[in-house]
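User: Sequence in, structure out. Go.
Assistant: Echoing your sequence, followed by the structure tokens.
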Amino acid sequence: MNDLLIERRDGVLDITFNRPQRRNAFTKAMYGELRQLWIDTATDSSVRVVVLRGAGGQAFAAGNEISDFVETDDAVGYETWIREMLDGLFTLPQVTIAAIDGVCVGGGLAVATSCDLRVATAGSRFGYPIARTLGNALSSPVLYRCAAVFGESLTREMLLASRLVAADRAYAAGALLGCVDDRDALDREVAALVDGIVQASPVTLRVTKEQLLARAMLTEASPADEEQLLREVYGGPDFAEGVRAFLAKEKPAFGKA
């Protein structure tokens, strides 16, 4: 099975994360393919809209494949490489839509918040429960993007209380433009969105995205000491324990420092 299903039709690029047995968790190979896809799509004037989905009905995407962290000698470098992929998605000139049906956490939420628009089924949930699972930290741009989309209060709840946010609360906060009953309703809502976008002025859409991107680059830039902070996290005992416990399917025993 292909982990990414890609379909092009009538100005629309449809991308489906296709690892339902792993709740569509992202592998390094998937990130690499997405990274190149954004590079190619950025200059493809035949594409007007990009739609991202998760297969299986249980998850949009449930974060990263943790075993990939074990196989790299530089976890911070790997996170930076992932963030560059997210930047490629965020800076696309086309309108991007995350069609969410199920759990949207970790790397999945980073992808969803890098899209322009988000629609979700009522049973979907969102969050970054990393304080209870891996003991790592988000890069600042990913954290700031979440706060820009969900608001600071819900972002603090996701990360500091390790709580998942239900779709109705995400909709009330403005993070979703629609909260629909089921997958069929989700497909109809996305189809209606796409239909409106492909008929809209491409000049208006492109300039609006450029203006919002300029604002985001000012408000979501990394602090000067970002790399050192992340290296302390990924080289520390909590992350090592989080990865060990996750792979062993045990509850991590984090330090109390």
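User: And one key feature?
Assistant: Strands lie at 4-9, 12-17, 49-54, 59-62, 95-100, 103-105, 117-121, 125-127, 165-166, 178-180.
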